[in-house]
Every structure is written in C-alpha cells, then in structure tokens.
C-alpha cells in the first residue's frame, strides 16, 4: 500500500513533498512550533505547540481553529491527547512548575489546570492514556528515579511510588521532542523509552506499579541521542525510533522493533536511518504502513522489517498522530501539518 499525502503548509505555498497526491492551503493559521498531535478520526485532529498554542480541525484539515490556553502563553505544549472534538488533555513540558497538565471538555472554550509540578528538579516529557479517565505521565529522573504520575478519574493526578522503578543510570533521561516517549496498549500495559548516555525501554503490565527495563540497540552516548519515540500496535509488536537530534542527517542505528512485548529489540533493516523523533503505524491493526518523521526526513514503509522506504521525504516534522484506520497526521516547525492516508 502507498500513501496519499496531503501537505498543509500554513505560511507559504511549497512544492509537493509526496509523489502520490498533495493539497496545499495558503491560509496562515500559526507560526508556532508544533510539538504534539492527536488524531481522533479522518475529521477530528488536535495539535499543540509553543506559547500555549493548540489547534483543532473538525473537517480533516480544511479549516483549523488556533488559540492559546489562557495563562499558559509562556508554556510549551509538547503533548496533546484527545478523545473527541470536545475532550483533550495538554501537557506542558519544562523545568519545575513549567510542567503542567490542562484539560478541556468543551472543545477549548475553557481549560482546567489539573496539575503543576512542584519539584524544582522535575521535567515531565510525555503522556499516554488507556481511556479518557486513566492516564500516565513520565518525567526525567529525580533523585535517581524516573518520575511517573497517573490519574484514574481524569481529574486528579498522583505520583506512583518510586520503589518499584528501576534506578535511572547516570546521564539517562527521556525526550519531550514529540510527546511520544511513552505508549500504552490494552488495559494495563505501558512502555517508555529513554536516551542519553544509556538507552533503554521500561515496561509495566500493571499501569506502572511494577517495572522491568531492557537495553536496546538505538544509538546513544551523547546527551542529545537515544530513543525519542515508542509505539506498540498490540501487546507484542512495537517500534522505537531516535538518533541524535543535534545531527538529524546522521545515519545510524535509529530504528528498532520487538515482537515479544519489549523483552528484546532488533534493529530494522530499513535504510536510510537518519534521526526520527516520532514513529508509528498508519494502520495499527496490522503490520502495514510504518511512518517515521524527524527534523530532516520522513519515511513511509510497508513494515519496520522491510528493506527500503516506499516514500522518503526531505521535510522537518516533530510529532506523529495515528487515526485508525489508515490515517496519520504529523506536525512541525512554523505550523506545518501533514496528513497521510492509505489508498484503498
């Protein structure tokens, strides 16, 4: 299968980036750096970014509503998790009290500030939800342990006890580049990926009460390198992507996969492998339609186990959101939004 790709450039007209089909909108919606995206369907998509910005479309990208969360103009929304045209969570990433969680249930007319990080050394990176009321957030290590907070009512957040969390290694952290360093599947499975001097994947089958951790083959060593994104299409099959964000063109071991729930990871044979800040499947119900996006390139392949990309684009994108089945959206700097849809 090959993707139809619709490119929405919100500043000026650009040449088509896809060989199949493209559509460009001239209207300027935002000049902000978009860092998060959550696709609900082929029609409803939310995005988020710098200066407290969020966007929403109800017509598949033909028109977008752009606004700022009141009082959050100085915040950087690195992640958005939406459940309908009215319901969404926003995660602001940053040191100390710049890490916050907001929620709307009326399409952005009002926002409730649900959580503010009171730990000066803390920095929250990404979030994921099993359903509208049950979610988890991971943050960089404090006192040698990754911070995790959860909600079971969609309103109140509480820290998980760090006792069962394996210790972080020196120089280890998570990346808030795409809002996808954590993922969930089923009723209770959760995984998050790390980087820096080491590079590992943490896994829990009981919503974060107990954790295991394994090393993976993604490039690491520099503070700017490691796994940036993790995606599971079911409880056994997952992918991770990363690299060195300071050298986005640099080729390396930047894409890997698992078929045993994350116990072991194998390098993908797809080439080339530059820096990829986000990865996922257009159709997560099958092993078809792998997408990976990053600061220099985006690629589409039938599967992570393939030999070559079916599409390989020169474009700067940060985050990726999948709307099952067969649609995905990616966002990046200066308000760029790209839509992929598999041909029937």
Account of the 3D structure:
With 344 residues, the protein is an all-beta fold. It is 0% helix and 44% strand. The chain has no helices and 30 strands. A hairpin with a 5-residue loop joins strand 2 and strand 3. The protein is globular, with a radius of gyration of 18 Å. The protein starts with a strand and ends with a strand. Mean pLDDT is 90; it is low at 1-27.
Please tag this protein with its features.
mainly beta; globular; single chain; 4-stranded antiparallel β-sheet
Task: Provide a brief overview of the structure.
By secondary structure, the chain is mostly beta strands. It is 0% helix and 44% strand. It has strands at residues 3-8, 34-39, 45-49, 53-57, 65-68, 77-82, 88-92, 100-104, 112-116, 124-131, 134-142, 145-151, 158-159, 172-173, 182-185, 189-193, 195-196, 200-204, 212-215, 225-232, 238-244, 255-258, 266-267, 278-283, 288-293, 297-301, 311-314, 319-323, 327-331, 337-342.
């Amino acid at each position: 299968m090959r993707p139809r790709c619709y490119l929405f450039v919100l500043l000026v007209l650009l040449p088509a980036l896809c060989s199949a089909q493209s559509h460009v909108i001239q209207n300027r919606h935002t000049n902000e750096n978009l860092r998060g995206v959550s696709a609900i369907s082929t029609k409803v998509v939310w995005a988020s970014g710098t200066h407290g910005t969020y966007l929403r479309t109800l017509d598949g990208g033909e028109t977008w509503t752009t606004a700022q969360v009141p009082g959050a103009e100085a915040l950087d929304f690195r992640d958005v998790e939406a459940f309908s045209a009215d319901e969404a969570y926003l995660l602001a990433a940053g040191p100390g009290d710049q890490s916050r969680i907001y929620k709307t249930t009326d399409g952005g007319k009002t926002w409730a500030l649900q959580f503010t990080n009171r730990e000066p050394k803390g920095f929250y990176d990404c979030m994921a939800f099993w359903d509208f009321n049950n979610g988890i957030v991971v943050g960089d290590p404090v006192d040698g342990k990754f911070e995790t907070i959860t909600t079971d009512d969609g309103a109140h957040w509480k820290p998980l006890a760090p006792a069962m969390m394996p210790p972080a290694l020196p120089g280890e952290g998570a990346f808030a580049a795409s809002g996808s360093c954590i993922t969930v599947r089923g009723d209770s499975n959760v995984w998050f990926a790390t980087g820096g001097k080491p590079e590992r994947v943490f896994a829990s089958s009981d919503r974060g009460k107990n954790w295991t951790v394994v090393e993976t083959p993604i490039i690491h060593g520099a503070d700017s390198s490691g796994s940036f994104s993790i995606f599971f299409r079911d409880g056994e099959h997952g992918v991770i992507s990363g690299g060195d964000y300071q050298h986005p063109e640099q080729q390396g071991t930047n894409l890997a996969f698992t078929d045993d729930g994350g116990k072991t990871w194998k390098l993908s044979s797809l080439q080339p492998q530059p820096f990829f800040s986000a990865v996922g499947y257009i159709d997560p119900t099958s092993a078809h339609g792998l997408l990976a996006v990053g600061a220099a390139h985006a690629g589409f392949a039938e599967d992570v186990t393939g030999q070559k990309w079916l599409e390989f684009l020169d474009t700067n994108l940060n985050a990726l959101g999948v709307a099952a089945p067969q649609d995905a959206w990616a966002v990046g700097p200066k308000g760029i939004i790209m839509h992929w849809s598999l041909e029937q």
